[in-house]
Amino acid sequence: MTLATINWRRDVFSRTMLVCVFTGFASGLPLYALINLLPAWLRSEGVDLKSIGLFALIGLPYTWKFLWSPLMDRYALPLLGRRRGWMLASQLALLASLAVFGLFDPQQDIWSIAGLALTVAFFSASQDIVLDAFRREILSDAELGLGNTVHINAYRLAGLVPGSLSLILADRMPWGSVFVITALFMLPGALMTLMVKEPKLASGSPKTLRQAVVEPFHEFVTRQGWQGALWILGFIFLYKLGDSMATSLATPFYLDMGYAKSQIGLVAKHAGLWPAVIGGLLGGLWMIKLGINRALWAFGVVQVVSILGFAWLASYGRFDSVGAEQLAMLAVVIGFEALGVGLGTAAFVAFIARSTHPAYTATQFALFTSLAAVPRTLANAATGYIVESIGWTSFFFLCTALAIPGMMLLVKVAPWGDDPAPHQA
Questions:
Q1: CB 308 within 8 A of CB 396
Q2: Where is the chain membrane-spanning (predicted)?
């Protein structure tokens, strides 16, 4: 089957795409809790921007997850199989650890909170390893664009919980209750894990730990060549750098502009979510006709330009009062940025999935997504210092400039219209 012959109606409403909805929601919830809910909690409790910015370092497990991904490729937990066993274990661990945040006081227990956040990031990164591998193994190469689009849209829908519902609840109940309610939204993913079947690969799982560690890297370099492999790794690192930095302190930015937490929950998060979902779905369908390479070019341009909207909003400075006009401005800016990021992310994740070999999905997918997480972890840790040094407006211009190099690398890694043939397992 080729991209041109896909019956998109059949595929959009297939059981496989429904599974991708659940993998996306389960994957997105803990990350959005760390990057949206946690900073909002800390900022509302009086923690300074520099400290909140440094909390980006808790994302290090996302950067280094390829180190333990071979273990998840090689070994299986009892009862549920190689993929489903690790999926359920990580999901239950996330449910328990997310609920514990509310037991701490940000002013008194900042180091304990940082340690717990690092623990949540570790379990979340581990869940991502196995969910990415599971999704790659149930999708054919022809379904990668649409399947990953569905996953990403559900991923962003998960952000509605910690980024909207939880913020609204935080104005009405104690933070401890908010974190427990947020954690309970891990249950749908756990139920999905119990209901699906373990994927089967003709090539089987690695027979030894050495094979699980060495062969994924050897296969990638052999297939691409050293130069091609370096171009791909550089592209993965740079393509999302600009928008990742631009959104790393999004919630503190909205608060500093004068918006209330409930306004952020009701307006900003919805304005960001639905354009991203619509853009992602359109992007997945467009990728069927465009191919992944053309999508990376077209969607990437929108992604870069959309960051400038934040610079425009920041140029107004803090609002003395927030009325309908200010809320509309925020909704338009965030909606356009979310549309661009939704399109760009759909093509980007499809490219990463396409770059893996079906025999080594967990380790190769973990390596590529770990590299993509480096900017979010290391560069974003400095964003608080950068904002306090140059201000919000200049910061967003800087983010726009940092998005350009990744686009330039498309000439090497994804020439216009030159999509490679599918892998054979």
A1: yes
A2: 12-35, 47-64, 85-104, 176-196, 229-251, 271-288, 295-315, 327-353, 392-411
**pLDDT tens across 12-39, in order?**
667 888 888 898 899 999 999 988 888 8
Domain count, the chain: 2
Nearest to 344 by CA among 278, 304, 299: 299
The contacts of residue 167 (CB under 8 Å, 6+ apart) are 37, 40, 261, 262, 264, 265, 269
At 349-398, the pLDDT tens digits run: 888 888 887 777 778 888 887 777 776 666 667 788 888 888 888 999 99
CATH of the domain at 9: 1.20.1250.20
356 phi and psi, to 5 degrees?
A: -90, 160
Residues 252 and 106 occupy one common structural domain = no
Enclosing domain of residue 44: 1-205
Q: How far is Cα 115 from Cα 57, in angstroms, rounded to an integer?
A: 11
**Euclidean distance between CA atoms 162 and 32, whole angstroms:** 6
